[in-house]
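Hi support team,

I've been running sequence recovery on a batch of backbones for a student project. Most finish fine, but this one hangs at about 90% for roughly twenty minutes before it completes. I'm not sure whether the input is malformed or the queue is just slow. I've pasted the structure tokens below so you can try to reproduce it. Let me know if you need the job ID as well.

Thanks,
M.K.
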């Protein structure tokens, strides 16, 4: 599927919209990520990325490492002020509030889509 364009993108699994999606593809946007926020509605895609950190974050997050086809290869929950290990197969990372992936019913091996 083509890359999304415009202000609003959607994170989709099995034709079901999971969340609104912010996309951070520039170095500046990726380095800022969710820093300084009290939470996030929806999710944030960081691309390219193999790892993330939560230094300076105010809330725990779920992290999904995705391969080049946006298939989930690793999931974890990170508390604030932690350094995540790189996932070498990952080409992108999705961050969202802790517990979101369980609530959305997605896991390792699931194919995600951007619309």
């Amino acid at each position: 599927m083509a890359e999304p364009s415009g202000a609003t993108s959607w994170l989709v699994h099995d034709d079901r919209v999971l969340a609104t999606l912010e996309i951070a593809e520039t170095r500046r946007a990726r380095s800022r990520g969710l820093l300084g926020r009290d939470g996030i509605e929806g999710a944030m895609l960081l691309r390219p990325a193999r790892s993330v950190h939560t230094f300076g974050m105010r809330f725990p997050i779920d992290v999904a490492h995705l391969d080049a086809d946006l298939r989930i290869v690793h999931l974890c929950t990170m508390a604030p002020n932690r350094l995540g290990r790189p996932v070498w197969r990952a080409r992108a990372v999705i961050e969202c509030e802790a517990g979101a992936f369980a609530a959305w019913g997605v896991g390792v091996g699931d194919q995600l889509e951007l619309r």
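--
Follow-up from support: It reproduced on our side and the slowdown came from queue contention, not your input. The chain has a mean pLDDT of 88. No action needed from you.
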